Structures
1.
Amino acid sequence: MKIDLNNHDRLWFPGLAELLVSRHDATAPGSSDHQRIDLRESTQERSDSSPRITARWQLGQRLVAIEYPQRETALRFSGLSFATIDPQSALDQLENAADVLGTVDGLLNTLGLLVKTVHLLEAPIGFDVSHSDPELPFSICISLPQRGEADAVPRLAEAILHESMHLQLSMIEREVPLIAEDLECAYSPWKHEVRPISGLLHGLYVFAVIHQVCERWVEPQAEGIRYCHKRRAEIEREVTTLPERPRGLSSIGSDLWRRCRHSVLSSIQ
């Protein structure tokens, strides 16, 4: 499949997710089917043979399952604490986040194609935890802010967008080479340590999308506007620390790097 990452000014590439998902479904049938665990059972009684979805969430034109992961998945991500949150409470918060993301033209349909399952995580008050893995396609793990926390809705919206874009870039990587030599490393302003260039490209891409979306989404509340300005400024400071042309990227990867970096830094006055 031929992919042109330069044919759209929006970094989440409207229309590309549909092609990527179609390609994935054609080459790996059944790979996105996950067994589910009944939240009404105790931890000891949960059975992978008795799948149950706790709720369904409308994301764009698709319904996303909110569910507890199967035992194998939970054990694989033993560093994450999966939450048994009331499904209706979770659904209300997710719908509020989708309303914010839905103010950006075409974004929700992209996210709805990329995300088929949401696993909920525990997180301390005031902190957000999220995770995705290319080996667990179409699934994201996110925490929900406590009700009444500052910036709860835009924080959750950002987490959904963040992990969805990781999934999309992983799918892009299966179709086009982005890395020429992954032994190359550089300092990550997000991990605060030296990281492989592949991880830095993922970080730059995801945060460049967030930076662009924060400029475009319509947030009527003053709190939400302040959050968008704050996050854009933070991302701009972080991206200024990245090299202009790192080694280790393919020509396509280099083009994507330069485009994302320029998208963020061109807004600095």
Note: The first strand starts at residue 55 and ends at 59.
2.
Amino acid sequence: MKNFCPIILVMAMASAASATFSGNIISVDADGFGNGIDISTAFDGVILSSVGGYSGLDGKVYAWGDGLASTSTNVFANNLSFQRQWYSDLTDGFALRADFLQLAKSVAIDIIGDDWGDYGELYAYNSSGELIGYVLSPQLSTGEVFRATIDRDWAFDIAYIIAGGAFSTTETVHLDNLTANVIPEPATLSLFALSSLLLTRKRKKLY
């Protein structure tokens, strides 16, 4: 029985590490905050900002109540009079940006039509600022929700995303419910590597 205890322990470590090696899910949602509360740095693992060249944009992201919210009552908002509307043109727009503190392999966000005929966009970039993923929503009616998703399979290389109404059609949309699958913390990766190494050594001794 003595010989099996270390093996069981190592297998348990490997199993736990394997479960988290696929990534850690972070969820970013404006629900639970009052209208106008700055939520730019309110969530672990991600920094939100408003980007674009529209005059008066302050670079922050706020929570705001919205009858078109896809989850509960709030959506992401900016400081402009448009508040809950987002437009992806970075020259003269007001897009939502999310920077991940750990690289992500997949991201998803709800794009919501604020009137009939809207289109929304989701862009994903790597740490060099190169575009590595893009999604254009289908045509949306008022309140219709499209879950825009970019999945890089096993490549954890998404550093940040930008979302908003489609530049090509000059549309605005509402945005809600951002999630990302980010690379585990270095400590988790070390545990995975160590447990795998120990398990390999134990197996070699058995043969």
Note: The two ends are 18 Å apart (CA to CA).
3.
Amino acid sequence: MRLSLLLVALNALWAQDPIAARDALNQGVQNFRAARYFDAVQSFQQAVDFDPSNVTARLYLANAYFQQWVPGNDSPENERLAARAQDAFLQVLTLEPKNNLALASVASLTLNQKKWNDARGWFERIIADEPNNADAYYSLGFIAWSEWFPAYSEARVRLGMDPAAPGPLPDPVMRQDFLLRFGPRIESGIANLRKALELNPRYEDAMSYMNLLIRERADLRDTADEWRRDTAEADQWMQKAIETKRQKAQQAPAPLSGIRVGGAVQELKLLNRVDPVYPALAQQARIQGIVKLSLAISKEGAVKNVSVISGHPLLVPAAIQAVQQWIYRPTLLNGSPVDVTTDVTVPFNLDSSVTVK
């Protein structure tokens, strides 16, 4: 018995090795910055094994898993990465229950997995700790729309209604059913979006979903006057969103300096391309086309800065969000990696199969 207790004590002392933990953490950070996430996981796990109380190592470990996870991919391996990322973030929250990064990461993970109830709980927890977090309120509004829109869209198809045609649902029984099932959720979503806009009056995505929820709520109204009132308010939010996106696109920073490389040449070096998410507002308005961007690419191949050359204001933010995740093979000049600037085009086609958000 005494020997067993001694071995347990020695193992505990061995695990608490701050120097080894620091070395493993530093190695993991190098791998992480080079996008070698599999190797980073091994190093960060070693750092955690050497010092289980090291919150920084656990956060890096969780993010190394998170970076490898691909939203929308239902493969078993991808699901394992999501589970490992969530477990690692939860371990951080066990040590620091109010760790903002871990809370936001778990909320984002469950949101992208479309686990709406779980995501709602995490964002509500964020708001409890940060009552002025506009992003959390916006996310609750987006969740409300995501829960309601599939049933609403399917109903319009069943009724033979053109997706672009305005007007309330003609079936009063269906309208009443939707009000009972989704009415409180829609109102809660609108209230959360209003709060997000109180905190950030230039939150264009919140404006876009205000437009959608209010416009869709109009289709559940009983009278033409109520429908027109909601539709008019939705139109106002849509115009505000378009104008805010236009202003922000004009204010985008200029790209960093670097050697100029043609878009076709630079495209051959693209290692990781993330397709844009088609904005629901743009889809509803039947907007498509090409967004042209100027990129500043670091010596390591990461996109460091983006500026807008042309494109519809409703499409520009989605294009920027996508290309910011692109990774290129480093460009060499006389054998040494250099910064690069190049132009890219991001197409949006309503006939293509794209994710809508």
Note: The chain has 14 helices and eight strands.
